[in-house]
Amino acid sequence: MTTLEPSDKALVPFVSVDHMMKLIHHIGVEQMMTGISDYIESDFKRWELFDKTPRVASHSEKGVIELMPTSDGDVYGFKYVNGHPSNTKDGLQTVTAFGLLADVATGYPVLLTEMTILTALRTAATSALVARLLAPKGAHVMAMIGNGAQSEFQSLAMKAIAGIDEVRLYDIDKAATAKCAANLAGSGLKVVACETAEEAMLGAQIITTCTADKQYATILTDNMIGSGVHINAIGGDCPGKTELAPAILHRSEIFVEYPEQTRIEGEIQQLDPDHAVTEIWQVLTGQAKGRSDDKQITLFDSVGFAIEDFSALRYVRDQIEETGLFHPLDLLADPDDPRDLFGMLQRAK
Ligand SMILES: NC(=O)c1ccc[n+]([C@@H]2O[C@H](COP(=O)([O-])OP(=O)(O)OC[C@H]3O[C@@H](n4cnc5c(N)ncnc54)[C@H](O)[C@@H]3O)[C@@H](O)[C@H]2O)c1
Protein backbone atom coordinates (compact mmCIF):
# COMPACT_ATOMS: atom_id res chain seq x y z
CA MET A 1 0.00 0.00 0.00
CA THR A 2 1.31 3.50 -0.92
CA THR A 3 1.35 6.08 1.86
CA LEU A 4 0.48 9.51 0.53
CA GLU A 5 1.52 12.57 2.53
CA PRO A 6 -1.55 14.71 3.33
CA SER A 7 -1.58 18.21 1.84
CA ASP A 8 -1.92 21.31 4.02
CA LYS A 9 -5.59 21.50 3.09
CA ALA A 10 -6.16 18.06 4.60
CA LEU A 11 -4.84 19.08 8.00
CA VAL A 12 -6.98 20.36 10.87
CA PRO A 13 -5.44 21.53 14.17
CA PHE A 14 -6.35 18.96 16.84
CA VAL A 15 -6.00 19.75 20.55
CA SER A 16 -5.60 16.50 22.48
CA VAL A 17 -6.28 16.13 26.21
CA ASP A 18 -2.53 16.32 26.79
CA HIS A 19 -2.23 19.55 24.80
CA MET A 20 -5.31 21.03 26.52
CA MET A 21 -3.79 20.36 29.93
CA LYS A 22 -0.48 21.90 28.81
CA LEU A 23 -2.35 24.94 27.45
CA ILE A 24 -4.23 25.40 30.74
CA HIS A 25 -1.01 25.17 32.76
CA HIS A 26 0.75 27.51 30.33
CA ILE A 27 -1.98 30.15 30.75
CA GLY A 28 -3.00 29.32 34.34
CA VAL A 29 -6.38 27.77 35.20
CA GLU A 30 -7.89 30.91 36.75
CA GLN A 31 -6.50 33.15 34.00
CA MET A 32 -7.89 30.83 31.32
CA MET A 33 -11.36 30.78 32.90
CA THR A 34 -11.21 34.58 33.12
CA GLY A 35 -10.24 34.74 29.43
CA ILE A 36 -13.04 32.36 28.44
CA SER A 37 -15.55 34.36 30.49
CA ASP A 38 -14.50 37.51 28.58
CA TYR A 39 -15.14 35.68 25.29
CA ILE A 40 -18.53 34.44 26.57
CA GLU A 41 -19.44 37.96 27.65
CA SER A 42 -18.55 39.42 24.26
CA ASP A 43 -20.46 36.66 22.40
CA PHE A 44 -23.51 37.04 24.68
CA LYS A 45 -23.44 40.77 23.87
CA ARG A 46 -23.91 39.93 20.16
CA TRP A 47 -26.54 37.28 20.97
CA GLU A 48 -28.94 38.23 18.18
CA LEU A 49 -26.36 37.39 15.49
CA PHE A 50 -26.20 33.71 16.42
CA ASP A 51 -28.14 30.72 15.10
CA LYS A 52 -29.81 29.28 18.19
CA THR A 53 -31.56 26.00 18.84
CA PRO A 54 -32.14 23.86 21.92
CA ARG A 55 -29.51 21.13 21.90
CA VAL A 56 -30.34 17.88 20.14
CA ALA A 57 -30.60 15.22 22.84
CA SER A 58 -30.69 11.45 22.58
CA HIS A 59 -31.91 10.04 25.90
CA SER A 60 -31.42 6.52 27.19
CA GLU A 61 -32.14 4.82 30.50
CA LYS A 62 -28.69 5.65 31.83
CA GLY A 63 -27.98 9.06 30.37
CA VAL A 64 -28.02 11.43 27.47
CA ILE A 65 -25.88 12.19 24.41
CA GLU A 66 -26.23 15.70 23.02
CA LEU A 67 -25.12 17.81 20.06
CA MET A 68 -24.85 21.58 20.59
CA PRO A 69 -24.48 23.60 17.38
CA THR A 70 -24.37 27.35 16.74
CA SER A 71 -22.95 29.87 14.26
CA ASP A 72 -22.28 33.61 14.21
CA GLY A 73 -22.41 33.70 10.40
CA ASP A 74 -18.63 33.52 9.97
CA VAL A 75 -17.74 30.59 12.18
CA TYR A 76 -19.76 27.46 12.96
CA GLY A 77 -19.23 25.34 16.07
CA PHE A 78 -20.63 22.28 17.76
CA LYS A 79 -19.98 20.16 20.81
CA TYR A 80 -20.66 16.47 21.37
CA VAL A 81 -21.34 15.87 25.06
CA ASN A 82 -22.77 13.10 27.21
CA GLY A 83 -24.22 13.03 30.72
CA HIS A 84 -24.26 9.65 32.47
CA PRO A 85 -24.60 10.06 36.27
CA SER A 86 -23.99 6.35 37.01
CA ASN A 87 -20.70 6.29 35.05
CA THR A 88 -18.50 7.21 38.01
CA LYS A 89 -19.40 3.87 39.68
CA ASP A 90 -17.63 2.15 36.76
CA GLY A 91 -14.64 4.45 36.83
CA LEU A 92 -15.96 6.57 33.95
CA GLN A 93 -16.78 10.27 33.92
CA THR A 94 -20.34 11.64 34.11
CA VAL A 95 -19.55 14.17 31.35
CA THR A 96 -17.18 13.79 28.36
CA ALA A 97 -17.03 16.02 25.32
CA PHE A 98 -15.24 17.10 22.16
CA GLY A 99 -15.92 20.00 19.83
CA LEU A 100 -15.26 21.52 16.44
CA LEU A 101 -15.10 24.94 14.79
CA ALA A 102 -15.55 25.41 11.06
CA ASP A 103 -15.24 28.24 8.54
CA VAL A 104 -18.76 29.08 7.32
CA ALA A 105 -17.47 30.32 3.94
CA THR A 106 -15.96 26.94 2.94
CA GLY A 107 -17.45 24.57 5.51
CA TYR A 108 -13.92 23.38 6.29
CA PRO A 109 -13.20 22.55 9.95
CA VAL A 110 -10.54 24.80 11.50
CA LEU A 111 -10.27 23.23 14.97
CA LEU A 112 -11.04 19.88 16.59
CA THR A 113 -10.49 19.66 20.31
CA GLU A 114 -11.09 17.71 23.49
CA MET A 115 -13.84 19.45 25.45
CA THR A 116 -14.23 17.37 28.63
CA ILE A 117 -11.86 19.66 30.48
CA LEU A 118 -12.81 22.68 28.39
CA THR A 119 -16.50 22.16 29.30
CA ALA A 120 -15.64 22.32 32.99
CA LEU A 121 -13.76 25.58 32.35
CA ARG A 122 -16.53 27.16 30.27
CA THR A 123 -19.28 26.06 32.69
CA ALA A 124 -17.42 27.57 35.63
CA ALA A 125 -16.54 30.70 33.63
CA THR A 126 -20.24 31.18 32.77
CA SER A 127 -21.34 30.61 36.40
CA ALA A 128 -18.85 33.13 37.69
CA LEU A 129 -19.65 35.73 35.02
CA VAL A 130 -23.32 35.48 36.00
CA ALA A 131 -22.56 35.51 39.75
CA ARG A 132 -20.52 38.70 39.25
CA LEU A 133 -23.63 40.25 37.67
CA LEU A 134 -26.24 38.96 40.13
CA ALA A 135 -24.73 38.05 43.52
CA PRO A 136 -25.30 40.51 46.37
CA LYS A 137 -22.62 43.21 46.72
CA GLY A 138 -19.62 42.02 48.74
CA ALA A 139 -20.45 38.32 48.28
CA HIS A 140 -17.38 36.37 49.30
CA VAL A 141 -18.52 32.97 50.64
CA MET A 142 -19.83 30.16 48.42
CA ALA A 143 -21.51 26.91 49.43
CA MET A 144 -20.52 24.18 46.96
CA ILE A 145 -23.05 21.32 47.06
CA GLY A 146 -21.80 18.40 44.99
CA ASN A 147 -18.02 18.01 45.00
CA GLY A 148 -17.48 16.01 41.80
CA ALA A 149 -15.60 16.77 38.60
CA GLN A 150 -16.90 20.32 38.14
CA SER A 151 -16.51 21.50 41.72
CA GLU A 152 -12.90 22.76 41.82
CA PHE A 153 -13.41 24.64 38.54
CA GLN A 154 -16.57 26.27 39.94
CA SER A 155 -14.71 27.29 43.09
CA LEU A 156 -11.67 28.73 41.30
CA ALA A 157 -13.73 30.62 38.71
CA MET A 158 -15.85 32.14 41.48
CA LYS A 159 -12.61 33.24 43.17
CA ALA A 160 -11.03 34.70 40.03
CA ILE A 161 -14.12 36.30 38.48
CA ALA A 162 -16.72 36.83 41.23
CA GLY A 163 -14.38 37.56 44.14
CA ILE A 164 -15.12 34.76 46.64
CA ASP A 165 -12.49 33.92 49.25
CA GLU A 166 -14.18 31.02 51.07
CA VAL A 167 -15.82 27.84 49.77
CA ARG A 168 -17.87 25.53 52.00
CA LEU A 169 -18.07 22.00 50.62
CA TYR A 170 -20.76 19.35 50.96
CA ASP A 171 -21.32 16.07 49.13
CA ILE A 172 -23.25 12.93 50.13
CA ASP A 173 -19.99 11.12 49.40
CA LYS A 174 -17.33 12.26 51.88
CA ALA A 175 -14.58 11.00 49.59
CA ALA A 176 -15.67 13.56 46.97
CA THR A 177 -15.46 16.38 49.54
CA ALA A 178 -12.02 15.20 50.67
CA LYS A 179 -10.83 15.10 47.03
CA CYS A 180 -12.14 18.61 46.33
CA ALA A 181 -10.65 20.04 49.54
CA ALA A 182 -7.26 18.47 48.77
CA ASN A 183 -7.32 19.81 45.20
CA LEU A 184 -8.14 23.33 46.43
CA ALA A 185 -5.43 23.37 49.12
CA GLY A 186 -3.00 26.17 48.37
CA SER A 187 -5.42 27.86 45.95
CA GLY A 188 -5.83 30.92 48.16
CA LEU A 189 -9.41 29.95 49.05
CA LYS A 190 -10.41 29.16 52.61
CA VAL A 191 -11.88 25.67 52.26
CA VAL A 192 -14.32 24.27 54.83
CA ALA A 193 -15.56 20.66 54.57
CA CYS A 194 -19.09 20.35 55.95
CA GLU A 195 -21.23 17.46 57.21
CA THR A 196 -24.56 18.71 55.85
CA ALA A 197 -25.82 20.99 53.10
CA GLU A 198 -27.25 23.30 55.80
CA GLU A 199 -23.82 23.65 57.41
CA ALA A 200 -22.26 24.41 54.01
CA MET A 201 -24.74 27.24 53.50
CA LEU A 202 -23.96 29.01 56.79
CA GLY A 203 -22.87 32.54 55.92
CA ALA A 204 -22.80 31.84 52.16
CA GLN A 205 -24.05 34.54 49.78
CA ILE A 206 -23.61 32.27 46.73
CA ILE A 207 -24.98 28.72 46.71
CA THR A 208 -23.85 26.43 43.92
CA THR A 209 -25.60 23.11 43.37
CA CYS A 210 -23.60 20.81 41.12
CA THR A 211 -24.85 17.28 41.76
CA ALA A 212 -25.57 14.49 39.30
CA ASP A 213 -28.66 12.31 39.45
CA LYS A 214 -30.79 11.05 36.56
CA GLN A 215 -34.04 12.00 38.33
CA TYR A 216 -35.85 14.81 40.11
CA ALA A 217 -33.77 15.38 43.24
CA THR A 218 -34.24 17.92 46.02
CA ILE A 219 -30.79 19.16 46.90
CA LEU A 220 -32.18 22.42 48.30
CA THR A 221 -35.50 22.62 50.15
CA ASP A 222 -37.39 25.88 50.58
CA ASN A 223 -36.56 26.35 54.28
CA MET A 224 -32.80 26.15 53.56
CA ILE A 225 -32.81 29.36 51.51
CA GLY A 226 -32.79 32.74 53.22
CA SER A 227 -33.26 36.09 51.50
CA GLY A 228 -30.59 37.90 49.52
CA VAL A 229 -28.61 34.92 48.22
CA HIS A 230 -27.58 34.04 44.67
CA ILE A 231 -28.20 30.41 43.65
CA ASN A 232 -26.05 28.99 40.87
CA ALA A 233 -27.90 25.79 39.90
CA ILE A 234 -25.72 23.69 37.59
CA GLY A 235 -26.85 20.07 37.97
CA GLY A 236 -30.47 20.32 36.79
CA ASP A 237 -29.86 20.16 33.06
CA CYS A 238 -32.03 17.42 31.57
CA PRO A 239 -35.74 16.59 31.37
CA GLY A 240 -36.62 14.93 34.70
CA LYS A 241 -33.28 15.99 36.30
CA THR A 242 -33.60 18.92 38.72
CA GLU A 243 -32.11 19.94 42.08
CA LEU A 244 -34.35 22.60 43.63
CA ALA A 245 -37.71 22.44 45.41
CA PRO A 246 -40.31 24.27 43.27
CA ALA A 247 -41.13 26.63 46.17
CA ILE A 248 -37.62 28.13 45.86
CA LEU A 249 -38.29 28.92 42.22
CA HIS A 250 -41.45 30.82 43.17
CA ARG A 251 -39.45 33.00 45.59
CA SER A 252 -36.62 33.70 43.14
CA GLU A 253 -35.95 36.05 40.24
CA ILE A 254 -34.91 33.50 37.61
CA PHE A 255 -32.17 34.10 35.03
CA VAL A 256 -31.48 31.73 32.14
CA GLU A 257 -29.25 31.32 29.09
CA TYR A 258 -31.74 30.42 26.33
CA PRO A 259 -35.35 30.01 27.56
CA GLU A 260 -36.34 27.63 24.73
CA GLN A 261 -33.73 25.13 25.99
CA THR A 262 -34.00 25.87 29.72
CA ARG A 263 -37.77 25.29 29.79
CA ILE A 264 -37.06 21.73 28.56
CA GLU A 265 -33.99 20.99 30.68
CA GLY A 266 -33.63 23.40 33.60
CA GLU A 267 -35.17 23.85 37.04
CA ILE A 268 -38.00 25.80 35.38
CA GLN A 269 -39.32 22.61 33.73
CA GLN A 270 -41.12 22.38 37.11
CA LEU A 271 -42.98 25.68 36.40
CA ASP A 272 -45.67 26.81 33.99
CA PRO A 273 -44.26 27.27 30.47
CA ASP A 274 -44.96 31.01 30.59
CA HIS A 275 -43.36 31.70 33.99
CA ALA A 276 -41.33 34.91 33.66
CA VAL A 277 -37.57 34.53 33.30
CA THR A 278 -34.80 36.98 32.35
CA GLU A 279 -32.16 36.18 29.75
CA ILE A 280 -28.56 36.73 30.83
CA TRP A 281 -27.57 38.35 27.52
CA GLN A 282 -30.19 41.04 28.12
CA VAL A 283 -28.73 41.83 31.54
CA LEU A 284 -25.25 42.00 30.00
CA THR A 285 -26.40 44.42 27.31
CA GLY A 286 -28.38 46.57 29.78
CA GLN A 287 -31.75 45.67 28.22
CA ALA A 288 -32.95 43.93 31.40
CA LYS A 289 -32.38 44.47 35.09
CA GLY A 290 -30.20 42.15 37.17
CA ARG A 291 -30.54 42.05 40.97
CA SER A 292 -32.94 44.76 42.13
CA ASP A 293 -32.36 44.72 45.90
CA ASP A 294 -30.37 43.10 48.72
CA LYS A 295 -33.26 40.88 49.80
CA GLN A 296 -33.97 39.36 46.41
CA ILE A 297 -33.07 35.72 45.75
CA THR A 298 -31.47 35.50 42.31
CA LEU A 299 -31.32 32.10 40.63
CA PHE A 300 -29.16 31.25 37.64
CA ASP A 301 -30.90 28.18 36.19
CA SER A 302 -27.87 27.02 34.21
CA VAL A 303 -28.12 24.20 31.68
CA GLY A 304 -25.15 25.08 29.44
CA PHE A 305 -25.75 26.64 26.02
CA ALA A 306 -23.98 26.19 22.68
CA ILE A 307 -22.72 29.80 22.51
CA GLU A 308 -20.64 29.20 25.68
CA ASP A 309 -18.92 26.29 23.92
CA PHE A 310 -18.46 28.38 20.79
CA SER A 311 -16.77 31.09 22.89
CA ALA A 312 -14.50 28.53 24.57
CA LEU A 313 -13.59 27.03 21.18
CA ARG A 314 -12.82 30.49 19.82
CA TYR A 315 -10.65 31.20 22.84
CA VAL A 316 -8.67 27.96 22.35
CA ARG A 317 -8.27 28.61 18.63
CA ASP A 318 -6.82 32.03 19.42
CA GLN A 319 -4.22 30.52 21.76
CA ILE A 320 -2.86 27.53 19.88
CA GLU A 321 -0.94 29.13 17.05
CA GLU A 322 1.34 31.01 19.39
CA THR A 323 1.80 28.06 21.77
CA GLY A 324 2.00 25.31 19.12
CA LEU A 325 -0.04 23.08 21.42
CA PHE A 326 -1.86 21.06 18.74
CA HIS A 327 -1.34 18.22 16.27
CA PRO A 328 -2.03 18.73 12.57
CA LEU A 329 -4.66 16.02 12.06
CA ASP A 330 -5.11 14.36 8.66
CA LEU A 331 -8.90 14.77 8.80
CA LEU A 332 -10.04 15.98 5.37
CA ALA A 333 -9.58 14.01 2.16
CA ASP A 334 -7.92 16.40 -0.31
CA PRO A 335 -7.61 14.97 -3.87
CA ASP A 336 -5.44 16.95 -6.34
CA ASP A 337 -8.54 17.29 -8.51
CA PRO A 338 -11.41 18.02 -6.09
CA ARG A 339 -13.73 15.81 -8.17
CA ASP A 340 -11.35 12.86 -8.28
CA LEU A 341 -11.87 11.41 -4.82
CA PHE A 342 -11.94 7.90 -6.29
CA GLY A 343 -8.63 8.46 -8.09
CA MET A 344 -7.05 9.51 -4.80
CA LEU A 345 -8.29 6.28 -3.24
CA GLN A 346 -6.93 4.23 -6.17
CA ARG A 347 -3.50 5.83 -5.92
CA ALA A 348 -3.28 4.83 -2.25
CA LYS A 349 -3.37 1.10 -3.17
N1 LIG B 1 -25.08 23.62 33.49
C1 LIG B 1 -24.03 23.25 32.81
O1 LIG B 1 -23.56 23.97 31.92
C2 LIG B 1 -23.35 21.95 33.13
C3 LIG B 1 -22.12 21.65 32.56
C4 LIG B 1 -21.46 20.48 32.93
C5 LIG B 1 -22.08 19.62 33.84
N2 LIG B 1 -23.32 19.92 34.34
C6 LIG B 1 -23.99 19.04 35.31
O2 LIG B 1 -23.35 19.25 36.55
C7 LIG B 1 -23.50 18.11 37.37
C8 LIG B 1 -22.20 17.75 38.02
O3 LIG B 1 -21.28 17.29 37.04
P1 LIG B 1 -19.95 16.57 37.50
O4 LIG B 1 -19.20 16.26 36.25
O5 LIG B 1 -19.29 17.36 38.58
O6 LIG B 1 -20.57 15.22 38.10
P2 LIG B 1 -19.88 14.18 39.11
O7 LIG B 1 -20.66 12.90 38.96
O8 LIG B 1 -18.41 14.15 38.93
O9 LIG B 1 -20.19 14.83 40.55
C9 LIG B 1 -21.46 14.92 41.10
C10 LIG B 1 -21.36 14.87 42.64
O10 LIG B 1 -22.65 15.11 43.20
C11 LIG B 1 -22.73 14.34 44.39
N3 LIG B 1 -24.14 14.23 44.80
C12 LIG B 1 -25.13 13.48 44.24
N4 LIG B 1 -26.29 13.67 44.93
C13 LIG B 1 -26.00 14.57 45.92
C14 LIG B 1 -26.79 15.16 46.97
N5 LIG B 1 -28.07 14.84 47.13
N6 LIG B 1 -26.19 16.05 47.79
C15 LIG B 1 -24.87 16.36 47.66
N7 LIG B 1 -24.08 15.80 46.70
C16 LIG B 1 -24.64 14.93 45.84
C17 LIG B 1 -22.08 13.01 43.99
O11 LIG B 1 -21.68 12.27 45.14
C18 LIG B 1 -20.88 13.51 43.16
O12 LIG B 1 -19.72 13.68 43.94
C19 LIG B 1 -24.06 17.02 36.45
O13 LIG B 1 -25.44 16.89 36.72
C20 LIG B 1 -23.83 17.56 35.06
O14 LIG B 1 -24.79 17.09 34.14
C21 LIG B 1 -23.96 21.07 34.01
TrEMBL record:
Pfam family, one: OCD_Mu_crystall
EC number: 4.3.1.12
Gene3D superfamilies in the record: NAD(P)-binding Rossmann-like Domain, ornithine cyclodeaminase, domain 1
Enzyme class per UniProt: lyase
An example Gene Ontology molecular-function term: ornithine cyclodeaminase activity
InterPro entries cross-referenced by the UniProt entry: NAD(P)-bd_dom_sf, ODC_Mu_crystall, ODC_N
Lyase listed as a keyword: yes
Keyword Manganese tagged: no
Keyword terms, alphabetized: Lyase
Annotated NCBIfam families: PRK07589.1 (NF005762)
Protein name: Ornithine cyclodeaminase
Biological source species: Sulfitobacter mediterraneus
